[in-house]
Amino acid sequence: MINLPPHPLRVLAVPAFKDNYLWLVHDGVNAAVIDPGDSAPILAALAAHQLTLTAILLTHHHADHIGGVPGLLSHAHVPVFGPRNDAIAAVTTPLGEGDLVAVPGLALTLRVLDVPGHTSGHIAYVRETPGAHWLFCGDTLFAGGCGRIFEGTPQQMAASLAKLAALPEDTNVYCAHEYTLANLRFASAVEPGNGQLRERIERDGAKRAAGLATVPSTIGVETATNPFLRYRQPEIVASLVAAGRLDAGAAPLAAFIALREWKNTY
Ligand code: ZN
Ligand code: FE
User: Fold this and answer.
1) Peptide bond just before 36 cis, omega within 30 deg
2) Cα 184 to averaged position of ligand 2 atoms, centre (Å)
3) Closest by alpha carbon to 263, among 182, 207, 196, 204?
4) pLDDT category of residue 7 using cuts at 50, 70 and 90
5) Which of 7, 59, 180, 242 lies 20 to 30 angstroms, CA to CA, from 16?
6) Residue-wise pLDDT tens digits, 38-64
7) Is residue 224 within 8 Å of 160, Cβ to Cβ?
8) Nearest ligand to the C-alpha of residue 148?
9) Catalytic-residue membership of 49
10) Per-residue b/e over 55-83, b at no fewer than 16 CB within 10 Å?
11) Identified catalytic residue from 62, 122, 133, 204
12) Which of 65, 86, 122, 133 is catalytic?
């Protein structure tokens, strides 16, 4: 028998519900799932690709990210990694900032970042392999936007996003929802002069029209076009002031808060 080297790691987007992506990382044999909100589509993807589930990783406690855990555990008894500071009963390995996860069954190590804001315990997972930088960020950073601030403070959310923005530009951003076009419509309302944003809207609009995912994006694309990473830009500040949502000369955090509040009702 020849021992074949394992396939390079791949990331599969498994759509669920209306607009969730459940992420399946696999090497052609074993697979880990990030944020399985539902078990049925994951079990179907595992069967279709003849993969064995070896680990479950969670970013935060919301049902559309953990709802599939019991169904997966009844099918395969695997470890469940998740945030130390979000209460999730199924978690067997609680994680926080700086922890390293050697993902069982895969040649994959992920570093954990605390990114509170959307929930108070939200974590993200980063792969730091040169040439294959990945970020699994749940509902913290979205393509063209960010998660709503349900439990944390705007200050925490802004700091969490800044932490993600500081990752290498070529980091793939595997966020958990396909919200991109709606996010970009808002982005262009607050920063109409951004040429890279206009190009992105064309590009991602064409992808959606063809039935394709706009995710993953990259940190480079996000820092160039995502208003929640760009709220210090004079054009965005001017838009907030012109809309009567910000006092001229206000602190950057006030701009971030005004931006998030505007988007909530946009
Ligand atoms: Zn959520
Ligand atoms: Fe979600």
Assistant:
1) no
2) 18
3) 182
4) confident
5) 7
6) 999 999 999 999 999 999 999 999 999
7) no
8) 1
9) no
10) bbbbbbbbebbbbbbeebbeeeebbbbbb
11) 62
12) 65
